[in-house]
Structure formats: C-alpha cells, structure tokens
Design brief:
InterPro entries: NAD(P)-bd_dom_sf, SDR_enzymes, SDR_fam. By secondary structure, the chain is an alpha/beta fold. It has helices at 12-22, 40-45, 60-74, 103-133, 150-155, 162-181, 204-220, 230-243; strands at 3-6, 28-33, 50-54, 80-83, 139-143, 186-191, 252-254.
Length: 264
C-alpha cells in the first residue's frame, strides 16, 4: 500500500495530486496544508485514505510534528514525498529586476521566494528522510518550473518573474545535491507545465500580463495552445513519477518526459 506526503495540498496542483492519488483506496495520502481551515476541498472529498496535516513548510516545528504524525500512521515509513508548496508574489511577477521599485521590496520578494521555495523544501526533505529511507519507492519529487531554465529564459527573452525563477533554479540544484548523496533514492525536479490554477476570473491587468507572457512563449513554442488544467498536469506528472528509475535521479525534467525541454 503506497504512501504519499504532499505539501501545499489545499488547492491547485497539490489538491489535484491528493484527489487523483486518493481515488485508489490502496494509497495512503498525507495532505500537508498551512491551515486546516482552508482545506475545505480536501475535507469534501470524504475519503478515508486522506490524512490532512497542518504544516507550514517554513515552520520547522510543524514539519517535525507532521513527520511524526505520518510515521505513527505508517509504522515509520514513507514511499513518496511530493514537494508542491511554493511561493510567488503575483502582484509583482510581471516586473523585471531593474524595474522593481524600492530596493527593499525586491529584497523581500527574493528572500520570501528562497524561504519557501528553497529553504522550506530542504527542511521538508530532511524531516521526512528517515521515513523515506524505510519506504519501498524512495522517491522525492520537487515541483519546479520551466522558468528556471536558462535556455528558455534567453530564447524567449523572458525577464519577468525573477524572484520565483531564481528560487526555482536554486531548488533544481538542491535536487541534484540530494541525488548526489543518496544514490538509492530517485530525486526529481519536475516542471508541471504552464497550469491554470486560478479559481477566479482574471482582471484586465492579469490578462495583459498573461498575454504578454504567452506571446513570448509562442515565439519559442509556436504550437503552444495555452495553459493546461491541474487535472491534466497531475495525470501527466504521475506518469513521469511512476516511470522514473534510479537512472533519472537528479534530473530536471518536464511533465512531457519524452521531450525534456518542452516545458509548456
């Protein structure tokens, strides 16, 4: 009976991982959320194999407590860890590094991005490693982004979303560092594609930013048809996750594993 721990599970891609994995009653799914009060969608699924655990990945005490709770439920093991929780400052994701305004605001966004997207991921992995070592699958998946690809950034002339992109490039190296150390594990940095996770209608400003972004992507990917749904993204990601072996460890790949540079 495989066991999965998924961070940032209250909504978006994280929720969809829980939804699809828990549909198989043989799976045990631990959904880590910052607040149970915002986890209504998970509760509404009403599946007995879902365990909702309150844990902010920037809170080490909460992570330690979450790992202990998982351990007590599984007898001390965990098969899969999916690091989905991430931070992006959407109010300023259209800005470039030289047009950011006050320097302290740029510093704040960079540090906030690193705190969640890099440091939080490292601590999450460390707290769950003892359980993963006793698991059968030994797979650690960290969701990253095609925006962390230097080649794509240059070819598409995409200078926006800098704090997020920089932090995701850093977490790709984190993934490689763990893979270099733990050769019996599969550590994977996985891009989910460009996914529409919005639960509200976009305003005019959002539409303008999105059009500018997709316009740049289409110059590099002429066949790009627009963002995919969380359902489609997670389905494709799970195919990749289940198909990876030790020879894939340390890699930065996309939800279209057969074309590693096709991020969209």
């Amino acid at each position: 009976m495989p066991s999965y721990a998924i961070t940032g599970a209250a909504r978006g891609i994280g929720f969809e991982f829980v939804n699809q994995l828990s549909a198989d009653s043989r799976n045990t799914v631990f959904a880590l959320v910052r607040s149970k009060a915002t986890a209504n969608k998970l509760t509404e699924l009403g599946r007995r194999n879902i365990h909702i655990i309150e844990a902010d990945i920037t809170d080490n005490d909460a992570l330690e407590s979450a790992a202990k709770e998982v351990s007590s439920s599984t007898g001390g093991s965990l098969d899969f860890l999916i690091n989905n929780a991430a931070f992006v400052e959407s109010k300023r994701d259209g800005l470039t590094l030289d047009f950011y305004g006050p320097e302290d605001l740029l510093t704040k966004d960079l540090l906030d991005s690193f705190k969640v997207n890099v440091v939080g991921v490292i601590h999450t992995i460390n707290y769950f490693l003892p359980l993963l070592k006793k698991g059968t699958a030994k797979k650690v998946v960290t969701l990253t982004s095609g925006l962390a690809d230097i080649e794509v950034t240059m070819n598409a002339h995409f200078a926006a979303c800098a704090p997020y992109s920089i932090s995701k490039a850093a977490v790709n190296m984190v993934n490689a560092k763990y893979a270099a150390q733990f050769e019996e594990f599969v550590f994977l940095a996985l891009s989910p594609g460009l996914v529409n996770t919005s639960t509200k209608d976009p305003n005019e400003s959002d539409m303008e930013k999105f059009s500018a972004m997709t316009g740049k992507f289409r110059e590099h990917y002429p066949n790009f048809e627009g963002p995919i749904t969380p359902e489609a993204s997670v389905r494709m990601q799970l195919e990749v996750i289940n198909g990876t072996t030790l020879k894939d460890t340390g890699k930065f790949i996309s939800h279209k594993r057969n074309k590693e540079k096709e991020w969209l």
